Each structure stands twice: as structure tokens, then as C-alpha cells.
Amino acid sequence: MNLRNATCAAGLLFLLSPAAWAQVPTATAAADDEAAREAALFGGGDEADREAALFGDAPGGPSTPDREAALFGGAGTATATPSATPYAEPPSAEARLMDALRDKNDFLDIGGVLWLWLQASDVEGTPLGQSTLSSPSFADVYLDARPVDRLRAYASGRLSYDPTTTGDADDTSLSALTATADDAVLDELWLRFDIERAVFVTLGAQHLRWGTGRIWNPTDVLNRDRRDPLAPADLRTGVPLVKVHVPVESLGWNFYAIAELNQVRSLEQLGGAFRAEVLLGTAEVALSTAVRKDSPWRFGADISLPIWDFDVHAEAALLHKVRTPFFDAKSDASFINDLTAISDLETAQRVFAALAGQPVDRHEDWIPQVVAGLDYTLRYNDQDNLIIAAEYFYNDAGTD
Q: What's the pTM value of the predicted model, to 2 decimals?
């Protein structure tokens, strides 16, 4: 009988036999009663029996040193008897991971985002009734798995649908040129882990956006697709990368080293990029560079800081070894008018080639691109803001 059951039994005995306590016993009877009560409370028997009940040893069993050896691994005075149980191999890493998954039942999150909108666009000189109408709709669904604190896997896909897209060859709307009526694409697919909690590695297709500009981002060199400045959300899909992130938390600095895997078929086609983000007072400053075979060299810098009630930002990029041909277009306005008056795309391309003249090689030039702007945020309730922004973009890679 254990201590708890013995206590309950003794208490019950006291309640059922109150008359026994009213008698005046003799000395021998009192001693016997005292021994009986202790036996009922503590399990009976002598000291050895009580220790055996507490520590699992039978009377006459192993001595105290042997019990300590069994508990703490030390050698007793007697020769140790080999255990009949064979030596158990330590669990493998896979077994430990599966045990962690079973213990943590909420390691997977499932969610998504839904966009539904209707928009109309008009080109100068086009009748109002012929304005382009589109209704692009998108649904993003993601799976976010965190089996352990230092490992995370993420996957997201996008379903798109636009009932206004006809797919006809005569349909020249932006929606028809950029998407089909319905489509499904992989948005992100990456795995993230850390090395000694100091270096964080992300492998796979992931969202990445560099620069401070709201409309233009010349330093956003790793995204092959340019963001649509008129779109209400950035719908560009993830870029396949190997990203190594080294934060310096004491200073608020971040360093990134990146290997670009987009359309890479051999090691020599790998692209590389580096970015450093530092805090200087209230200003956030970043320096970046990206190089890849048969692609322009790209160097960039951006800054953002508060000035009074305004958020001021600027970024600049330098391009070198640009292999894209440039054309010196005619300065008269008739050149542009001739192109805009042509509705057929192939005819417009032939006219452009005839009027633009010979291409200009700027392979050895350093081509600057600069963006500067400021924002003013007006908070009209606890959750909503009105942002008034102005931005200027100078692009030497364009035409006058």
C-alpha cells in the first residue's frame, strides 16, 4: 500500500472507531498501538522494509552502494551483473525529427489571399465607349510548414482568371497580352534553415525586392520582370535563388550573398549578387551589386530617411556592358505620330525599324538610372492611411 492509500485508510479507521480513542490503554498496549499506526501509515515492517518499499529493493536485496550504483551509474562493491537487455542504439536524426513532428501537431499552416477587381483604361484619342475593360482575379494559396523552430518550408501557388479575356488575335488589351482567361503558376517554393543561429540560408523560388522607390526600382536587379506601376499589388512570382543572410543585430545591419539560378544550365551561367544594409542615424542606406555572364554589370545604392513629416527616398543604379541595342530616334514629333496611328503591331515594328535608323552601341558606356521621391502619410483612423507620394525617374537607358 502506498503512502496516499495508507493515509486514507488510517483516516477512515479514525472515523469509524472513535470509541477506541476514549479508552485509557496500558503502556504495552499504547506501544503496540503506536507501532500499528506507524505500520498503517508508512507500510509496516522495519526500516529495511520501508526503504525497500520506497526504492524498489526487496528485503535482503542489494545494499545501499549497489542501489546508488544502479541509480547513478557508479560501480558497487559487488561485481556488476550484465543486463539481459541488449544495448539500444541512439535514435537517428530522422527518428528524432519524426518524434518532434508527433509532439508538435500545429507545424503546418494553410491560408491564402484573394484579389477581385474591375478596371478600365483609356488611351488618348480613343472614344470613351472603346475604353479597355478588364477584370483580373487572383487567388493565392500557401502551405507554411515549421516542423522545428530552425527549419521552415513554404510553398504557394496562384490561380488567375479574367472573364474579359477573349484570346482573339484582334484583342490588343493589356489583359489579353499578358495573361490567358485562366492560368495556374507556382509563386514561391523555398526551404529556410540556419547555421549556428547566425547565418540564415533560403533555397528556392522566393520573393525579393530591392530599392526604395514606389513606382520605379532601378536597383531591383534580380527580378527579370518589372513591376506594373498601375497594378494595385505586386503580382510578380518568386525568383529562384540561394540566399545567405548574415544579420548583425547589435547594429541593425544586414548582409546578403545571393546565387541566381534562373535559367541556369551550367556553372558559368550562375549569377551572383551582394547587398549590404546599414543604419546611419535615422537613415537606412543600402549598397548592392549584381553580375552575370552576358548580362550588364549592375551597381546600386538607395537611401530612405524621415524629414519632418515626410519620408524621403532615393536610389541610383549604374549599368555597364549593356548589350541591348539602342536606336537614335528622330527628334520630330511626326515619328511618334506615325507609330501611334498604326494599329497593326507588325506594321508598326517595320515602320519603327525604317525610321529609327541604325542601332547605337553603348556597350562601353556607364548608364545611370536615378529615382527620387517623398511620401506623406495621413492617418484618418486606427487602421487606414492615405499616402500622398511624388516620384521622379531619370533613365539614361531610354530615349528622349
A: 0.64
